[in-house]
Amino acid sequence: MERRQPPQTEEGWYVLHDFRSIDWDAWRDAPERRRSRAIEEGIDYLASCEGVDDADEGESATFAVLGHKADLLVLHLRPTLGDIDTLERRFEHTALAEFTERADSYLSVTEVSGYMSQDYFEDGETADTGMAQYIESRLKPELPDSEFLSFYPMSKRRGPDHNWYELPFDERADYLSNHGEIGKDYAGRVTQIISGSVGLDDFEWGITLFGDDPTDVKELLYEMRFDPSSSRFAEFGRFLSARRFPPEDLGAFLAGERVPQEGEGGDHPHAHGGGESASHHHESGGHHGDDSSSGGHHHGDDGDEEDDVRSELEEMGVYAGQPHGEDVHAVVLYSAADADELFEEVEGLRENFDHYDTHVKTAVYEASEAAEPPRNGERGTRERDDAETAIVSLWDTDRAANTAAGFLADLPDIVRQAGDEEGDSWGTMGMFYTVKPEHRSDFTGAFEDAADLLAEMDGHRKTDLLVNREDENDMFIASRWDSREDAMQFFRSDAFSEAVEFGRDVLADRPRHVFLA
């Protein structure tokens, strides 16, 4: 008898969904001092969990459960079962525990399987670094700060007509690949964490979905019901729905008030964001990404100053980007490594980034020949001796961009990330200039003219024109100035106004000017 090939798996953090019911009669009858103590100890416990004070790494979050199945959900992810066990027993020693009963629980462990990447398991220690980092993000996920959560367990069917475990490996992998394609339409709206529970709980997997709009989760699951991976082979447990709130709102929750409290929005202590998107491959075969959208990803706490810059440029008719609400986030890093070596490394990362639904593109940009302003009265430009190679990575969401930045920072000879504070200088970057092919020489010529002007301006440090090594019509300009005012003097100049007008004819779309203080 032929034995079917099981997928290899690798496990990460253990996951506990701890559902609690409140004894509301006991709560109402308790004296105020007992309730105050329960709230105080409950907040301390929950805040300590979300701060991961008990372990070197992990995640926790608190939710109000909707419906009759439970009242409270505390979600824990920790490296060991000992960590999970300790958290359970610590709760029982709080005054809040006296007013609760465990309504349900689910124990599982994050996992990745060979359905995602056979190469990862076959190559072992020689596995591609980018893939290894991607796997790590699956095994140690960050909880998104979305308000809504839906949890359910599931197993694969083993019936006389449809038996998942009788299928050949390649057929199972194809089912899961097609299943994951559905989730791409929900990238940015639904995020998931899939954890294995064979031998740990009653079903084979625990599925936790996150989103800001519950109907997005509903629509995703409804659409997936029609996919054969679900319709033929999936068995589901009961669904539980919940809304996240910060620990400090525990008193409001127990008082029957709205949580999160007004003004808190979706911000939660220890909320990183990230996690996996709704490509929804059960058995950990999914694609990943995250939510929201924005343009010109920027850093630092100078929001008011950046708004002033944008407003002034807007008055001049120059589009200066927005801090939120656009279509992409950008991460830009600079490297002193050999460009060819760097490109090979980036290609490996990019292949793994493509597993994320929120990935737009990642590319290497090199200094153009029109790269350096003249010196000592020279005309034209020269190739910069100190020009750095840039890696630009574009994402649909802020969280995904920040996660990617961590991976990109491990590339060879990274010298800085755009937006990082550089002490005595103020940076500005004009980026995403898509030039019409027939006007490429016109654009680079205009940059040379601008370089002549920049060389004579007070406060100007350097400006590079960088070109995507895979698309010569995709460029951006990176500048560095002594101060914001020095940069604004240039943007107020007639030469810059003329450049803007010139760009309307030679550019394929509207440029974005992103300011990084």
Distance between the termini: 67 Å
Biggest sheet: strands, sense, closure?
8 strands, antiparallel, barrel
User: CATH topology of the largest domain, what is it called?
Assistant: Alpha-Beta Plaits
Approximate shape: globular
Count of helices?
Answer: 15
CATH class of the largest domain: Alpha Beta
Runs in which pLDDT lies below 50 for 5 or more consecutive residues are 265-303, 321-326, 371-384
CATH superfamily grouping of the largest domain: Apc35880, domain 1
Strand order of the main beta sheet, please?
1-3-2-9-5-7-6-4
Class inferred from helices and paired strands: alpha+beta
Beta content comes to: 25-35%
How many structural domains are formed by the residues?
A: 2
Question: Could you say what the CATH architecture of the largest domain is?
Answer: 2-Layer Sandwich
The beta-strand count equals 18
Could you describe the 3D structure shown?
The chain is of the alpha+beta class and 517 residues long. It folds into two domains: 9-277, Alpha-Beta Plaits (2-Layer Sandwich), CATH 3.30.70.1030; 303-516, Alpha-Beta Plaits (2-Layer Sandwich). It is built from 15 helices and 18 strands. It has helices spanning 24-29, 32-50, 81-92, 118-123, 129-139, 169-183, 214-225, 228-231, 250-254, 303-315, 339-353, 398-408, 440-455, 484-491, 494-506, and strands at 9-22, 59-65, 72-78, 100-113, 148-156, 190-196, 205-211, 234-236, 240-244, 276-277, 329-335, 359-367, 389-395, 414-417, 426-434, 460-468, 471-481, 512-516. The strands form two sheets. The protein has an eight-stranded antiparallel β-barrel with strand order 1-3-2-9-5-7-6-4, surrounded by four helices. It has an eight-stranded antiparallel β-sheet with strand order 14-11-13-12-16-17-15-18. Strand 16 and strand 17 (471-481) form a beta hairpin. Helix 5 (129-139) packs parallel to helix 11 and helix 13 (440-455) runs antiparallel to helix 15. The radius of gyration is 27 Å and the shape is globular. The model is unreliable at 265-303, 321-326 and 371-384 (pLDDT under 50).
